[in-house]
Design goal:
Blueprint (H helix, E strand, L loop, with lengths): L3 E5 L6 H17 L3 E5 L5 H10 L2 E4 L24 H17 L3 E4 L1 H9 L4 E2 L19 E6 L3 H5 L7 E2 L2 E6 L6 E2 L6 E6 L6 E6 L17 E4 L11 H14 L39 H5 L3
Parallel strand pairs: 1-2, 1-3, 3-4, 4-12
Antiparallel strand pairs: 5-9, 6-8, 6-10, 7-8, 10-11, 11-12
Helix pairs in contact: 2-3, 3-4
């Protein structure tokens, strides 16, 4: 039986966007051996939870919406797009169920931002002006590179030869289609990739050394990775993109169809953890400089 991967439709307000974007995520999951499960945002919370419990993994896709900044204690920036409460509610239910049962999660673009806020982190609401055009869009196959820290989950998924080593980092070519990004990483998340030109955070993942304080004895290792680029768009041309989806599906295959065992309290469910804290070296692997100024020195 193929592992079932829950994929919410990207937005409750733009049907044409859903029609042209959701199939790419589903195709990537299917090609990787999984069964994509479409989650309609008109479903009730109980229906969403039932779907979540029937799945062994989660893929959070991109969206034209932006996460409601009040959830991370920020005032609305004029450049911020309208929030999509239905999408955010669905993501929160999926993330809570995944945390309860250590199900694998892959967050993409809006998906990594949603994940980060659910874990209590914050976002940069608008990246313009920046040296890099992070809103280049789907027609630009390679927009810039991301410096991936070694000795991380993400680095282990980078295909040898696709990302040359430079000063202790893997220089991975990526596409880009966003105007927001992670600011302060959420609880238990570590920075594992940055754009070398402006220090923008390009990926976060679970810190393997972290345990949620709510239930230190019940925590299980969880595959949890969020990337700011769109691997579903580069699936055909990038082995690394294929590896991301293949690993999500492989990890999902380890999850029982009806998860059982102990459950631990969810994270902030998108709640506010206070004002954004400044980045510090503890936010990143030992091999990765958390300060953007240091990242800018790598060329």
């Amino acid at each position: 039986m193929r592992p079932r991967i829950a994929i919410p439709v990207p937005t409750s307000t733009d049907i044409p966007y859903n029609d042209r974007s959701w199939p790419a995520y589903a195709a990537a999951v299917s090609a990787s051996g999984g069964e994509p499960v479409k989650l309609d945002l008109t479903a009730t919370p109980a229906e969403i939870l039932a779907i979540a419990r029937s799945c062994q993994g989660v893929c959070l896709p991109g969206s034209p919406a932006d996460v409601d900044p009040s959830r991370y204690g920020a005032e609305l920036d004029p450049a911020t797009s309208p929030a999509d409460p239905a999408r955010e509610a669905a993501d929160n239910i999926l993330l809570e169920d995944a945390a309860d049962h250590a199900k694998p999660v892959l967050g993409i673009c809006f998906g990594v931002q949603s994940l980060n806020v659910w874990r209590g982190g914050s976002l940069i609401q608008d990246l313009t002006p920046m040296p890099v055009n992070h809103s280049a869009g789907s027609k630009v196959a390679i927009a810039h590179t991301a410096l991936v820290a070694e000795n991380t989950l993400l680095a282990s998924l980078v295909q040898p030869g696709e990302a040359p080593e430079a000063d202790g980092f893997l220089r991975l070519p990526v596409n880009t289609s966003h105007h927001q990004s992670v600011a302060a990483p959420g609880d238990g998340l570590r920075i594992v990739a940055r754009c070398p030109d402006d220090g923008v955070i390009e990926a976060v993942e679970n810190d393997p050394e972290w345990k949620p304080s709510q239930s230190p004895d019940a925590h299980k290792p969880q595959f949890l990775l969020g990337v700011q680029w769109h691997p579903e768009r580069s699936f055909e041309i990038s082995a690394t993109s294929r590896n991301l989806f293949a690993s999500l599906v492989a990890e999902a295959a380890k999850i029982p169809t009806s998860p059982g065992g102990p459950s631990f309290a969810p994270f902030a469910k998108g709640g506010v953890s206070g004002e954004a804290r400044p980045l510090s070296p503890s936010d990143a692997p030992a091999s990765f400089d958390a300060e953007p100024s240091l990242a800018n020195q790598i060329s």
